Amino acid sequence: MLDHQTVELTLIEVANQRGLTLDGKDLLEIRTRIATTLAAKERHHQRMKSPAYQWKKPAPRR
Asked: pTM (2 decimals)?
């Protein structure tokens, strides 16, 4: 899986190569989007590898 810091540094470097200057707001936006995306990817991965849910009828009370 991709490392958070590697993705962040790559995006910053690409922006610098294109001549864009990033301020604090832009850096915060990049960090937030990367964290959100990687968290969603991890949740999806966990859902895909979990066993299928099988509902079981509750036992009647005595």
From this structure: 0.71
